[in-house]
Design brief:
alpha/beta; Purple Acid Phosphatase, chain A, domain 2; 240 residues; six-stranded mixed beta sheet; binds zinc ion
């Protein structure tokens, strides 16, 4: 059994198709989506459709939530806000109904999934450092939990204390807890512009980080053609 676990697609269809093709090639048997299907990039409706077709567990992200409202209830930065306004017009009523009905957290087999944090999932806090991770671990009752939101791939491990480790090939050891960020498919912000996702090899007890090249120029062209802010196209190639 192999799970392809991915987050923060952000309406980047080219990146989403590329990671799904890689997952298939790698023999993934199950799929998990950690939210933020929409926002920033040019194919929100198509990304929602693609994920719905997978019929897999999905949790709601902050952009999914805001895209379903008539106007934003939270302070988003100007770039995100302009993309959200545009996104609201692209999504069908059915898309919005489906997105707004998604749960904030879920347990799948022996692991948990959430977009932002387990301590206050509806507050959309960011887990960047060990201290942030400590709060979330308090509410983590499974060995593994996968999350997104920061667009920065990496893992926090709780043993005696909490430490941050690189993902690559992470062997899951008994007695420890793992809070794993799969990185972002559609808008990585860790300096690597390739689409990020993870494969959880259940029998081997290994979480593997994948970084996949995709048609980045194609995604950029669509952003500009849609009239979305140019900066959203430019940041893709910087991985920021
Ligand atoms: Zn996001």
């Amino acid at each position: 059994m192999r799970f392809a676990i991915f987050s923060d697609l952000h309406a980047n269809l080219e990146a989403t198709e590329a990671i799904l093709a890689d997952a298939q090639e790698k023999g993934c048997t199950h799929y998990i989506c950690l939210g933020d299907l929409v926002g920033y990039n040019a194919n929100p409706h198509e990304c929602v459709e693609l994920v719905r077709q997978l019929e897999c567990p999905v949790v709601r992200g902050n952009h999914d939530e805001q895209a379903c409202l008539a106007t934003s209830s939270r302070d988003f930065n100007d770039l995100a806000e302009r993309a959200l306004d545009w996104t609201r017009k692209q999504l069908t009523e059915e898309d919005k109904q489906w997105l707004s009905g998604l749960p904030l957290t879920r347990q799948v087999r022996d692991f948990t999934i959430v977009h932002a944090t387990l301590d206050t999932p509806a507050e959309w806090g960011y887990v960047f450092n060990n201290l942030d991770a400590v709060a979330s671990f308090t509410y983590q009752h499974t060995t593994l939990c996968f999350f997104g939101h920061t667009h920065v791939a990496g893992a926090f491990v709780r043993d005696d204390g909490v430490k941050k480790v690189k993902l690559e090939q992470l062997a899951i050891e008994p007695g420890k807890k793992y809070f794993i960020n799969t990185g972002s498919v559609g808008q990585p912000r860790d300096g690597d512009p390739r689409a990020a996702y993870c494969i959880y090899h259940v029998e081997r007890g290994v979480v593997e980080q994948r970084r996949i090249k995709y048609d980045l120029a194609g995604a950029q062209r669509k952003i500009i053609a849609a009239g979305l802010p140019r900066l959203l196209a430019e940041r893709l190639e910087l991985g920021r």
